[in-house]
Amino acid sequence: MSTFEGFPSPPPESGGSPAVAIIVTMIILVVIGFVSICCARKMKKAMVSELRAAVAPPMPSNVIQVWEVDAPTMEKFFLELAQQKPVRFTAQQLCAFTNNYSVTLGSGGFGRVYRGQFTNGVKIAVKVLNRGPNRSIEEQFMAEVGTIGRTHHINLVRLYGFCYDHFMSALVYEFMENGSLDKHLFSENQELKWEKLHEIAIGTAKGIAYLHEECQQRIIHYDIKPGNVLLDENFSPKVADFGLAKLCNRDDTHVTVTGYRGTPGYLAPEFMLKNFPITYKCDVYSFGILLFEIVGRRKNTKIGGNSDSLDWFPKQVWEEYEKGELMQLTEACGIEEKDRAKAERMAMVALWCAQDSPEARPPMSIVVKMLEGGVDIMPPPKPFHYLFSVGTDVLKPPTSSGSGSGYTSEGTTSYWCKETTPIMAKYEISVATL
After folding, report:
1. Is 166 exposed, middle or buried (0-12, 13-18, 19+ CB in 10 A)?
2. Which residues are recorded as binding ATP (predicted)?
3. Of the listed 70, 182, 223, 241, which one is catalytic?
């Protein structure tokens, strides 16, 4: 073997060189694959973003995305949704809400009403019913929860909830800052302006119309009077006290009533006759009596110094209307000149509502139109025949003559009123100026 001096010998060949090459190659492939996957994901994300931008319009910066709403907000929403229906409270909760029943708002044969407040600051009125041996309180409780509990209208008091156990029957209502209408209507200072009283009458009529005509089942209140019209902080009216109320189907022509329902002085004459059918029009009569008291700003019945002398204001209104002196009557009642036309209209509506025959009384939706002034009121027939006659004949509807429209309220003309179109109004003005 020969060698060259000055040059090193090459290293001997090793048998592990192919294995090292394979490992290096695999590492290179893995790196390339990883880089490829990352690039593919970035490209996919970029493409999706471009597609979203092309298809959907840009969202305003102040819009909160659905997925950004936190769980407590959704839970609050579901809680508010559930609270739209009456809630069943415990006796311990009511005790806490009322601070151990420390402030009494009023009392009566039904029980007591206490002032309270929810934990969120909402003011409430807690009506605690007297328990007794008879079932009248249970019937009143079921009547209130079963009627007002399924309604929601701006002119009906809201029932937040109730409590019923072995020891207590209570109802939780929204608190009405200004109490009942009678306290303002019959007070000596008369702080309420007549214009506001007119608004209260319309609002009350709308609440009753909702009960009669817009609920899934018709609700008859049976005790419409100023004491059952509550006023909120803005003196907006809300019909309250559904302890005598009753549900009935819309197709029912009358309902069966057992016992005495309502308040003397506001009762419809059909209650005085045995086995006479009772309809929802009994509420219309009671509302008419309430209108008389708003016009006169006094209780309808006054007994003079002589016990035989009875001053009944509705009868006086009819007598003045018959003589064509309704405007003078409104002046005598202390109503300012700017309000006398509305007061005269209200008196005529009251005469219609207080008709002897239930069929002759207008439905409350028509009463609303008549009070608002959108229609011309037809001359009412003489009411109060029942005060001088006995028997069912006085409650039979009078025969309509002339137009033959009967007791319908369809179209522009009905038995009670006639709608005035702008053309008619313009024509009447032109005639008056000739």
Report:
1. exposed
2. 127
3. 223
